[in-house]
Write a structure and sequence with these properties.
The chain has about 675 residues and is an alpha/beta fold. Helices cover about 45% and strands about 20% of the residues. It has 5 domains: about 5-60, Arc Repressor Mutant, subunit A (Orthogonal Bundle); about 80-285, Alpha-Beta Plaits, CATH 3.30.70.1230; about 295-515, P-loop containing nucleotide triphosphate hydrolases (Rossmann fold, 3-Layer(aba) Sandwich); about 515-580, no CATH class; about 580-664, no CATH class. Helix 19 (about 470-485) links the parallel strand 14 and strand 15. The longest helix has 27 residues, at about 175-200. The two termini are about 35 Å apart.
């Protein structure tokens, strides 16, 4: 809702009730002090029947039948509902799971973006010309949000408010929001160049981000979402936008913490924020890092000791030996989130087993399912050494050089490869093929290049996170497996159990199931993480019990204990300040995992599911109790549906000072 719409509603409220306090206006319309002051000034100036009541509120002095003075010209078109600008596939996801989403407490990242100086930019233009300038801005902002599966909750005249992580839960909501903000600035730079040439004006936006919690109250048929912010969630995001200079992005330390290692920022230090007693740490988002996955970000900081996977590691070595002998293999590493699938692949790639092999790596991402060939394009860029900043001519030269150096007979494959990188010449016959022909030509080209590369030297082809794979990349892998038995190629993939494929009957297929670490390995990992100080004695068994051998949750729990002061010292040499009287809370990174599991249960409103719903955002010490049984096994079905059957109440907990006193 923009400022003028709020103004009209306040006038109607005054006309109806006669008087209203300033505090009521702040609560009703979520106004900060600055916005309230602007609203008061406008009303006292434009409405002769409105007066100030000794600083306490506003009073309507006219007759009840007096018509309020108009503040705006009649709107030419009604405000569009979110359904009108939300892509169908996102709308279907939200509406399908609406009943499960309402009433949920969500960990989210809030994004505000607006056109800086819009009043000055549009002041001297007629309404039609102004809309021609403004509408493309809003369209580009919303497209960036939807690209990363965020939800545009409000369109406010010259800007938008968007949520990532609600109503659809995403474990990487902060990263998605940051990438969307960067995409906004990139597309606005291109649009600004067009406007500058056509109209001689500069168009710039500013963006603000903050991460926190909201409670989703209700979701309408038009996708309008009513929610309540927890604490300063939306207020701080709006303040970050107001602090941003044109063309920049500001974010809080909370958002940075959740996206750490995956983005590049410039620290601006503590900044006073109106309405808050203490300054807030603010950063400027300047770009995405070259790292796209959390394991890579962790590797930069330094990985913990690799333990407990000797059997699986040996199986990978055996598959490599068979593939090196010309009997191609596909090995699938399967396990729940956090058990160490990517770490196993990482260690194998960097071991002696891959000496003399050509290693080609790529991974699907959570927001890339709707983008054809998303991991393939990343793989092709790595293979041809294409950088993000390369122009079309450079891309063509690199791809041509790489492919023809491999084999000059691959000349005919170049158009399809260049098309994947948006670098194919405009006069190429490839562009005139019908879509089905282009698709088949692309799949044949990729398969041909990979098999030819394996003839030059054995190839280890890695595709990670297949549970987020797009359909075209899936088609490539299915096609590649048909030719795999006679090629010196090892296809190494990993995925969560919800992913399905048709490779199980292939003789070249091997599945490695990763379970949580056994007790001996957990002890070894904790020894490396914590050390052996006597003060850690009461904490160590508690961590083992609560995380149940999940390495990711062990590391995150230790990290939280350090941040909250329960542990002091350096990695591997901590001392503990833990006392059993403290409660427990989930680390923010772990909370979306709860949401996904709970949303899948069809009986979540009754019986045991109510208790699960209550526990998820709080994770008190009662989490150590076993899961309550469900007579119809709906909870068990929910865990399996979301592939979190091994994720129990005891996971992802860490000490906190706030423990609820009772449980429904």
């Amino acid at each position: 809702m923009d400022f003028v719409a709020v103004l009209d509603q306040v006038i109607a409220l005054l006309h109806q009730r006669g008087r209203v306090t300033y505090r009521t206006l702040q609560l009703q319309f979520t106004l900060d002090d600055e916005q309230l002051a602007a609203l008061k000034d406008e009303l006292l100036y434009s409405q002769p029947h409105v007066i100030d009541d000794a600083g306490r509120g506003l009073v309507w002095t006219g007759d009840p039948d007096t018509t309020p003075a108009a503040t705006t010209a009649p709107a030419e078109t009604p405000e569009r509902a979110p359904l009108a600008y939300t892509p169908p596939y996102l709308a279907e996801k939200i509406l399908t799971s609406r009943s499960a989403l309402e009433g949920e407490r969500k960990q989210v990242t809030v994004l505000f973006a607006d056109l800086k100086g819009s009043m000055e930019l549009l002041a001297d233009r007629d309404p039609e010309e102004a809309r021609q300038l403004l509408d493309p801005v809003l369209e580009r902002l919303m497209a960036a949000v939807h690209r990363y599966e965020g939800t545009v909750n409000q369109v406010m005249g010259d800007g938008i408010m968007a949520l990532f992580g609600a109503p659809l839960a995403h474990e990487d909501h902060a990263v998605r929001a940051c990438y969307a903000a960067l995409a906004m600035q990139e597309t606005m730079r291109r649009y600004s160049a067009e406007v500058r040439r056509a109209h001689g004006v500069e168009v710039q936006i500013r963006v603000g981000l903050h991460s926190g919690e909201v409670v989703v109250r209700a979701i309408g048929n038009d996708l309008h979402m009513d929610y309540s912010a927890i604490g300063q969630t939306t207020h701080l995001a709006a303040r970050m936008e107001q602090l941003a200079t044109p063309g920049s992005i500001r974010l809080t330390a909370e958002t940075l913490r959740l996206a750490e290692g995956l983005i590049q920022v410039t620290a601006l230090g503590p900044v006073p924020v109106k309405g808050l007693p203490e300054p807030v740490e603010v950063c400027e988002l300047v770009g995405a890092s070259t790292v796209r996955r959390r394991l890579q970000a962790s590797a930069v900081r330094g990985l913990t000791r690799f333990v407990g996977r000797d059997t699986e590691f040996a199986a990978l070595g055996q598959a490599r030996a068979r593939a090196g002998a010309g009997h191609g293999q596909v090995v699938a590493v399967v396990g729940e989130a956090g058990v160490g699938k990517s770490r196993l692949v990482y260690e194998f790639i960097r071991s002696y087993h891959t000496q003399g092999w050509r290693v080609l790596e790529s991974a699907s991402v959570s927001y890339g399912k709707a983008t054809p060939y998303f991991p393939v394009i990343d793989l092709l860029k790595r293979y041809c050494h294409v950088d993000d900043g390369d122009d079309v001519r450079t891309i063509r030269a690199k791809v041509t050089g790489q492919v023809l150096t491999l084999d000059e007979t691959l000349q005919e494959t170049l158009p399809a490869l260049l098309a994947l990188l948006d670098a194919v010449p405009d006069d190429s016959p490839f562009l005139h093929l019908d879509p089905s022909q282009r698709r088949q030509r692309t799949l044949d080209t990729l398969k041909r290049v990979l098999l030819r590369e394996s003839q030059a030297q054995p190839v280890l082809l890695v595709f990670e996170d297949l549970h987020w794979i797009d359909s075209e990349t899936q088609a490539l892998l299915d096609s590649l497996l048909e030719s795999l038995p006679t090629a010196p190629l090892l296809l190494l993939v990993n995925y969560r159990p919800e992913y399905q494929h048709g490779w199980g009957s292939k003789t070249s297929y091997t599945q490695l199931r990763l379970d949580p670490l056994p007790p001996a390995s957990v002890d070894a990992l904790l020894q490396a993480l914590l050390g052996d100080a006597p003060s850690l004695a009461p904490l160590t068994p508690l961590l083992i019990e609560r995380t149940e051998g999940n390495p990711f949750f062990l590391e995150e729990s230790v990290r939280t204990l350090v941040e909250t002061g329960v542990l002091a010292g350096t990695p591997g040499a901590y001392i503990g300040w833990y006392t059993p009287s403290r409660g427990y809370r989930c680390r923010p990174r772990c909370r979306p995992f709860w949401r996904r599991a709970l949303t899948a249960c069809p009986r979540r409103r009754s019986g045991c599911c109510k208790r699960l719903q209550w526990l998820a955002p709080r994770c008190p010490s009662r989490c150590s109790r076993p899961l309550p049984s469900c007579p119809r096994r709906h909870c068990t079905a929910a865990w399996r549906t979301s592939r979190w059957q091994s994720f129990s109440m005891r996971r992802a907990c860490s000490p906190s000072r706030n423990t609820p006193s009772s449980m429904p």
